[in-house]
Amino acid sequence: MRLSDEEKQAIVSVVASFDPAAEVYLFGSRVDDAKRGGDIDLLIYSGRMDRTVRRAIRRAILDRIGEQKLDIVTAKAPGHAAEPFIRLARQNAVRLT
């Protein structure tokens, strides 16, 4: 996983401040240590996420880790029927929380 401990802690802390029960996963190229570059792709499972909260989380994370490419995808819960993209993202995702 190509996130520093500080980046990981910042992400987990910010998301928990909005929803302590949320589950956060890293997916995409940052999961693969052999790859270079790439944005930070996060999948957040939470029943409390709407567009406004997602934007606030993104801004708070970037305030803590600095400007980087950051994409956030949200879903209700792991047990709910998921869209195909979310199922695909989850296949190689690494749980941060």
UniProtKB/TrEMBL annotation:
InterPro entries: NT_sf, Polymerase_NTP_transf_dom. The keyword Transferase applies. The keyword Transferase applies. SUPFAM superfamilies: Nucleotidyltransferase. Keywords: Transferase. Residues 13-75 form the Polymerase nucleotidyl transferase domain. One of its GO terms (molecular function) is nucleotidyltransferase activity. This is Nucleotidyltransferase domain-containing protein.
